[in-house]
Specification:
Helices cover about 40% and strands about 15% of the residues. The protein is α/β, with parallel strands linked by helices and about 625 residues long. Strands 3, 4, 5, 6, 7, 8, 9 and 10 form an eight-stranded mixed β-sheet that branches. A seven-stranded mixed β-sheet has the order 11-12-13-14-15-16-17, sandwiched between helices. Helix 5 packs parallel to helix 6, helix 12 crosses helix 20 and helix 19 crosses helix 20. The radius of gyration is 30 Å and the shape is elongated.
């Protein structure tokens, strides 16, 4: 006979009544559970730490955060589709007691493995994410963990999605032997395929990230972010101390230590991390922020979304190659906006202006020209050179990569920026960011202001010449538009390394030369005191370089270029860059590379045969800009 439904319901309600007090008791226990901060030893209610994303309110220490909480905080409204939750590993080398320990860990942690994967929306950008959990074998990577991460990466690759991985790991899982080691190769190979597909991968390093995880996928992000004070290293501190029998320096293997040495792009507190990730994903998805930066002090575009930046330029900003946009009928002539001083300025005076400590520096122009600039750090090998500042930003609703040479406005800043002289690590950082820009199809804007590359002992030991050569070669073949803006000094190969560009724009009082006038006079005349005389002969001013065809545009600075930058000058720079990016954006990658090659291929004046006088006079010259260059040579005879 079928059971009486009323009897069954009665039994069910009885069971619920018996279980309810236990459930309420467990909920109350969870609510009142406390956790002790490992740093300051303060005790907090667990619910308060959950609210604060497991950051100690007393000392700011970042406690280990459960993987599910990570993903819930990342994805919009905490909603995501779990991936591969049922995929588990085995006991590949039959390690004694391992299977039983795995079962016990699963029951205690409530997880099936040490990594949780999901797919969802982050700021309305769909992405795949993985998060490691310390409660499962300290986030160690066994065969199941490697397989889950690899499948997550492959899913992102197949569907053309960005990838975010929160690493927290003690490294390889010893109990799985060689099979654990092989997961390093598997995951790294999957990340490489994701990169080859031109997709974004953001790696977030948390405390701790060590061993095989760090030595594989965790170090391969396009952008690497770390939480403050996170332990990050291949070998653990105890292993290192036991091996070398030395006490490690203060802060060794912490986020800040690695940041200074060029391995990390940014250190971001956990409370700011989700916004940071949303901004990065939005930028790479081409979703411009709703609100731009506030209007700058110099009166540039600010929040004026109607400013298209592609209006024409008249007068002084004429492009030598004839590619400038045609001026519209209502465009105010540049001279009327920023009048050029009536009295002629000597070359030595322009050099002095270019070097003046009160001249606006790269930081100023970055703040005025670009929105939401996000600085990225490090060459990923040795050091972060502050002299070269690089990152990603919005320019008129378009993502761009900005790479700038920095000088300071006071002694402390100049010490930080090494007086504007980059080290090899700075050029290698620039190359890394340029390659990243090419991968994501972002145009590049470089800002040049340097007396030259740093001529120190360490710079030579680290390969200064090689770094400059590699940078010149890399920029010559980039498949994205490159616009170089000279705002001050452009000294020798140190400036050329970042100015092999499709378009070279110079401020009126900027200079670009083979070396400093002092060096020129010392080498040729063995008399540095003749620097002013040398400047007049070197052809280093912006108007001269425009005539030679080295510069493509010259922007007037106004009658007082130092005391307060002319707002219209900044606006003209904005228009010039925007116009060039618009023009260059119509070219294919192949056309860009070929045009850039031809531009530099035809620099100079030449004469065939043995008639030296004809060569000197510019006769039979074959260079693109031969006529202007030859006339300048003749004038100097």
């Amino acid at each position: 006979m079928p059971s009486n439904p009323f009897t069954s319901r009665h039994l069910f309600l009885q069971a619920v009544a018996l279980l309810k007090p236990k459930a309420q008791e467990e909920a109350k226990r969870q609510k009142n559970m406390t956790m002790t901060c490992p740093s300051c030893k303060a005790t907090h209610k667990r619910k308060h730490l959950v609210r604060d994303q497991y950051v100690c309110p007393a000392c700011g220490c970042h406690l280990k955060m459960p993987a599910t909480a990570r993903l819930q905080s990342l994805f919009d409204n905490g909603a995501y589709d779990p991936l591969f939750d049922t995929l588990v590993g085995a006991d590949p080398i039959n390690f004694p007691g391992y299977a039983d320990k795995v079962d016990a860990t699963r029951e205690k942690s409530g997880l099936t493995e040490a990594v949780v994967c999901g797919r969802g929306l982050v700021g309305n950008v769909e992405c795949v994410a993985c998060a490691f959990d310390a409660s499962f074998f300290m986030g160690s990577m066994g065969e199941a963990v490697g397989e889950r991460v690899t499948r997550a990466v492959e899913t992102a690759t197949a569907e053309g999605l960005p990838l975010v991985i929160f690493s927290l790991s003690g490294g390889a899982r010893m109990q799985e032997g060689i099979f654990s080691l092989m997961q390093m190769a598997k995951t790294a190979a999957a990340v490489r395929r994701h990169a080859d597909a031109g997709l974004l991968y953001v790696s977030v390093l948390t405390n701790p990230t060590t061993g095989g995880v760090l030595a594989s996928f965790a170090s391969l992000g396009d952008i690497i972010i770390a939480e403050p004070e996170a332990l990050i290293g291949f070998a653990g501190p105890r292993v290192i101390e036991q091996t070398i029998r030395q006490k490690l320096p203060e802060g060794f293997q912490r986020s800040e230590y690695l940041f200074e040495r060029g391995f990390i792009d940014r250190i971001v507190p956990r409370q700011d991390l989700n916004k940071e990730l949303r901004d990065i994903l939005a930028l790479h998805a081409g979703k411009a922020p709703k609100k731009d930066k506030a209007e700058g002090a110099a009166g540039t575009r600010g929040n004026d979304s109607s400013h298209s930046g592609d209006t024409g330029r008249k007068g002084y900003t004429t492009a030598a190659n004839g590619n400038n946009a045609a001026a519209s009928a209502d465009t105010v002539p540049a001279q009327a906006l920023c009048p050029v001083p009536q009295a002629p300025i000597s070359a030595s005076a322009r050099v002095a202006l270019a070097r003046d400590k009160d001249r606006p520096k790269a930081d100023f122009y970055i703040s005025q020209l670009f929105d939401n600039f996000m600085e990225l750090h490090g060459d990923r090998h040795d050091k972060d050179d502050p002299c070269i500042k690089g990152g990603i930003a919005w320019f008129h609703g378009q993502p761009v990569t900005v790479i700038a040479q920095c000088k300071g406005t006071n002694l402390q800043e100049n010490l930080t920026y090494n007086f504007g002289m980059p080290n090899p690590q700075g050029y290698r950082k620039a190359m890394r960011l340029a390659e990243q820009a090419e991968k994501f199809g972002r145009p590049i804007v470089t800002i040049i202001d340097t007396p030259g590359a740093y001529p120190g002992i360490e710079a030579e030991e680290k390969g200064q010449g090689e770094a400059i050569a590699q940078s010149i070669a890399l920029f010559s073949g980039l498949k994205v538009p490159v616009v170089a803006l000279f705002i001050g000094e452009g000294g020798s190969g140190g400036a050329l390394a970042l100015s092999v560009a499709d378009s070279l724009i110079m401020l009126e009082n900027a200079v670009f030369s083979i070396l400093s006038p002092e060096g020129f006079a010392s080498i040729l005349w063995r008399d540095a005191s003749r620097a002013a005389e040398a400047a007049e002969h070197m052809g280093l001013t912006a108007p001269e370089l425009l005539e030679y065809g080295v510069a493509d545009q010259v922007i007037p600075e106004g009658s007082q270029p130092l005391q307060a930058p002319c707002p219209e000058t900044v606006s003209l720079i904005d228009q010039a860059i925007s116009g060039e990016l618009k023009r260059l954006g119509t070219l294919s990658s192949e056309e860009l590379v070929n045009a850039r090659y031809e531009k530099f291929r035809h620099m100079g004046t030449f004469a065939e045969g043995t008639n030296a006088s004809a060569a000197g006079a510019g006769a039979a010259a074959t260079g693109t800009h031969a006529t202007g260059a030859a006339s300048k040579q003749g004038k100097r005879k």
